[in-house]
């Protein structure tokens, strides 16, 4: 099979959580460019509408559903709606996330629970729902979790403490490994992308506080750009990665290499 055919996503449906902006929207652009119909979920309908208009302007078929991963009872119904209205889900990108900056002794319990509920519990529940309703019955699927370099290492003491976030992303890293082994006989691959520092709404506060320290610790001496996740996301979503599973791949300018 030609390499272009291995990367072709025509006829595939990709569900991207937190897909209305930032890294999720960048991934939607990449998968849509290679033929996937993309389904975006996020909490804010106005941001979803803007993302849909943007993707439509690029010639990408996009569907949007307002949903909060922290509201667990809403997850099964939204997946059921997507499958009924758009079709079976072939690719799941678990991108939605939350963070909180505070010292451990001052970290509010409700903030801890918010981060864990979105980054781990919601991720588990939507993955379970998509497996039941699409991937296991069809005997194929691609699951891409967006973890973080924060799940691969501790936190530089010069930076704002983010214990809940780092803990949750460490959980995503091992969730990826463990689920990949379980699902390998079912034709479903599970991998994660571990971004370094990209300028997004979520990282705005971190970059305002510590961008120079981050750049000094990054061998490439730059932040991630709008294009830096796209190639890897396409690879992991396509048949070109059929023999890759259980991997947590850092896209970080080399920050975890030193």
From TrEMBL:
PROSITE patterns: ADH_SHORT
Domain Ketoreductase: 12-152
Superkingdom, natural source: Bacteria
A Pfam family annotated for this UniProt entry: adh_short_C2
PANTHER family named among the record's database cross-references: 3-OXOACYL-[ACYL-CARRIER-PROTEIN] REDUCTASE, CHLOROPLASTIC (PTHR42760:SF40), SHORT-CHAIN DEHYDROGENASES/REDUCTASES FAMILY MEMBER (PTHR42760)
Family: Belongs to the short-chain dehydrogenases/reductases (SDR) family.
Name the record gives this protein: SDR family oxidoreductase
């Amino acid at each position: 099979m030609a390499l272009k055919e291995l990367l072709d996503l025509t006829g595939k449906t990709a569900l991207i959580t937190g897909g209305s902006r930032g890294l999720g929207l960048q991934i939607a652009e990449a998968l849509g460019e290679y033929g996937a119909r993309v389904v975006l979920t996020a909490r804010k309908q106005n941001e979803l509408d803007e993302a849909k208009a943007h993707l439509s302007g690029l010639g990408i078929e996009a569907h949007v559903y307002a949903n909060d991963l922290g509201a667990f009872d809403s997850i099964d119904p939204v997946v059921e709606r997507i499958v009924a209205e758009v079709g079976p889900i072939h690719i799941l990108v678990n991108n939605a996330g939350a963070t909180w900056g505070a010292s451990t002794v001052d970290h509010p319990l409700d903030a801890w629970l918010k981060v864990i509920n979105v980054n781990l519990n919601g991720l588990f529940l939507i993955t379970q729902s998509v497996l039941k309703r699409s991937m296991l019955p069809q005997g194929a699927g691609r699951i891409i979790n967006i973890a973080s370099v924060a799940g691969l290492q501790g936190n530089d003491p010069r930076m704002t403490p983010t214990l809940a976030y780092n803990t949750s992303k460490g959980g995503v890293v091992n969730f990826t490994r463990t689920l990949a082994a379980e699902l390998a006989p079912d034709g479903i691959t599970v991998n994660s992308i571990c971004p370094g520092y990209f300028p997004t709404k979520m990282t705005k506060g971190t970059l305002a506080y510590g961008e120079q320290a981050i750049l000094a610790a990054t061998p490439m001496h730059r932040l991630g750009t709008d294009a830096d996740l796209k190639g890897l996301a396409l690879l992991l979503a396509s048949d070109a990665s059929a023999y890759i599973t259980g991997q947590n791949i850092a896209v970080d300018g080399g920050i975890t290499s030193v």
